[in-house]
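Page 42, continued from yesterday. The earlier attempt failed because a stray header line got pasted into the input along with the sequence. Redoing it now with the clean sequence only.
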Amino acid sequence: MAAMRGGAVASIHSLSIPQPRRPNPTQIPIPFKEENTQKPQPNDLTPFPSPLRRRAALLLFLLPSIASSSAASAFSFGISGPKEWLREQKKKAAKFVLAPIEASRKSLSDAHLLLTSGTDSEVEEIEEVRRLLGSAARDCVPEQRNSVVAFQSRTGVEVCTFSLLVKNAASLLDERDPVKLEAEARLSDVVRSFSALGNLMDDDHFHLATDRDKLRDGLMDTIGALNKFEQGIKDCLGI
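This time it went through. Structure tokens are written below.
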């Protein structure tokens, strides 16, 4: 009986006081190390921490100077800029720019030949000379403009072909450039020559040989003024 009681007591004691258990090494928790997952903000003013960023900053600093030196090198090797390119294009189009001058010179030469040969009647001859002179003047003489051209001139539209040639040829020159000023002076001479021819046509009727001689001389003077004007345009174009 005593043995049974002792065993019962031992059983109760073993149930009331649990025996310590050894921890399993594979179940020992490892302390969690918190990582910094915060992304850098775009307005972060901290200096570049990495060599890559330092190189990027250096490149951004050097870009303006590299671009300037590249542009200088390009021009030193003869690469043209916009102004030089336009000047070359004007030179290539010189034949078309000078075409109105050549056409006017031919009309004046035809009028001179007509007055010299005298193959037509006096009335027909006068009318043909008048037509040739009107064509050669290119609307540059105010007194010889028709109503439509005169109206355009009054509204501020440039109608004188020779004046338009000067503006086109000298568009890349400064306002006070001597070459441009010389071309404008020669333009004035041409306009005066055509105006003088118009006055001769109005005053004389070609009954006398002297009248015809004065008109022929005026035609030659105007051709000479046209030749000088053409050279002024060429000087503006650089040819």
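Notes: The CA atoms of residues 21 and 27 lie 13 Å apart.
Reminder to self: strip header lines before submitting.
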